[in-house]
Design goal:
Blueprint lengths: L6 H5 L3 E4 L10 H13 L6 E4 L8 H7 L14 E7 L6 H12 L7 E4 L3 H15 L9 E3 L5 H13 L4 E4 L13 E4 L3 E2 L3 E2 L2 H8 L9 E7 L7 H10 L24 H15 L7 H9 L4 H6 L1 H10 L3 E3 L5 E3 L1 H9 L3 H17 L4 H4 L3 H10 L4 H6 L8 H11 L5 H5 L5 H10 L11 H20 L4 H8 L8 H18 L4 H8 L4 H26 L5 H10 L9 H9 L5 H14 L4 H16 L1
Parallel strand pairs: 1-2, 3-10, 4-6, 4-7, 5-6, 7-10
Antiparallel strand pairs: 8-9, 11-12
Helix pairs in contact: 4-5, 9-12, 9-13, 13-14, 13-23, 16-21, 16-25, 18-21, 20-21, 21-25, 23-25, 28-29
Length: 621
Amino acid sequence: MRNPEKNGGVEGFGAICLDEAHLIANPPRGAVMEGVLTTMMCLSSPPRICLLSATLGNTEKAMEWLDPCDLVHVQGRFPPLEKRLIELEGEEEANEVISGLIEDILNDEHNQVVVFVYQTKAAEKLAKDLTTKLGEKAGEDGCLAFHSRISTAQKASVRNAYSSGKSRCVVATTSLAMGVNLPASHVILRDAVFFGAGELDTGEMLQMLGRAGRGNRSGAGLVVLKPSDGLDPASLSDRLKNEELADFRSSHEVENFRFGKGESGNAFQKFGRQVAGELSRRQKEGCTLDELNTFFGRSLGGKHIRENLSQTLCELRAGELAINSDDNKHYLTTLGKISVKSTLPLAISAGIGQLVRDVLDTDEKNELFGQWTVMDCLLLLCFFEGGDDIQKFLPQRFNKELPGKVDAWFESSSIKSALFNNWVRNGDEACEMLFGSMQLKSGTSKEEPNRKHAYLAAYRAIVILEMGQGKLVSDLERRWKISGLEGIQEKWRDQMIWLLGGLAGVLELPCFFRHLKDSDASDDRIKKVKVLLAKMRSRTYHIMEILNYCSPLGPIIRSLRRSSKGNGPLPGKKTLEKLAENGITTLQDILDKGEQGLVDIGIRRNLTKVLLIYSLRRLRS
């Protein structure tokens, strides 16, 4: 969709079906959905479009946007779903009431329950308590917790246990709220109000309650209402009964629309991705302001983009992501094109691009790039906070012990960092210069804000690297005095591999050599810079490989693959995931499991032999 070379394939689409269409109102994913559909509608031969949703309110705007269109509204639900409130009184404790309800529900051997709670810790605790109280009624595997902090393999394990009846009760956060069909007869919503986030709207509640009743089995959805929730029971009951849902609308209409941690009033943060995406599709012929206005005028929430279009284009040009030609047509620069094609966040692309140009201007001896390591690849991206997943799962607060611990790590480690040694350790003024080059705002702290931001970034980069190198979660948590790392390695892995792929693309751009030529650099220096950037790309790919095998056994699998002569299949990521899922984290564990034991957990027999032979050889050496 972002690649103009693929336009021929897009033109061939005959029909598009968008499920969960109400998510068009949810930033930032809704903006992507809306952009895709708008692009389709603007084709010379638009495909047929079908939007599906079980929780969509007034559809007048949808019909106006898609005109001409038909509305198919099914009022009934099959199988039927009963919805009712459980009002707590006085000192009644929610978990105790829920335990009693579930115990009664599971007296029927055909029933299974999903309980929704707000927080991860609450899910873990309630699942553990229910397992103890329910005993055999909870199933062979007991009551299980499901939330965003467990790995994909763990999530699959929970779903399989529930579907097979080994677990008859799952306690989940909203990560299980949409699009997952499980054989639940009953759903209990314990938290109708999320502390710090407010009351769930009717659509969100119905999405959760709608997990009950699948196939031919009717369902029951129970909402627990606590006195502290401050909600009117009669009003909430009517809303659920009548299914009073939010109107269909664009995410661009949502207040405080944000990408990452950008300021809500920043046009670049709000609309830069949409505008750059449209410029990418018209890269060959360019796009005038009128043409952009016409396109976004066809979009559902396009008026909000049109009001900010000139400012957005100005900010894209300021970041050297777009240019305005003499004929008043707008084009993406080479940097802008790679940003859109790789889906690298525009602010990161602009910041890295400017940093590279500034270093080329000020470091004529190429010392910084000559000292570049795999740690610099990670640290550079962590300066931008490495994406929402990483900053979400690592502590944000700076403490006075952190710089000393980070300094000590770099002093003892064989892996160094040019960015850390040349900028971070040299105080707040040096960090301010670095962040200024990358167009970064380091926060609102008045005391050494740049230095604090830099040390937090270095700390995150260290943890990520050590996870990739196979360090045990328990050791990392103890050393850095953090918790909750278990199960989230793959979130970091996928997030950072995506960002690193974009970084590798940026470092390959010829615009940097053109910048050197415009600065009257010698041919000899341009050749040296080409070699250095190629080495930096190589180190980027190397750290991507390290993170690809993020597990205690990851270094072993990488070593096995490197030492192999390429004869026959070799263990890879899927093998590593199966080993980790079954608690196998050392070479001795592999030998103890044996060939048949490894086959029994799903590893192909020819791969088990490779693993056993390699493990035995390594242990003997």
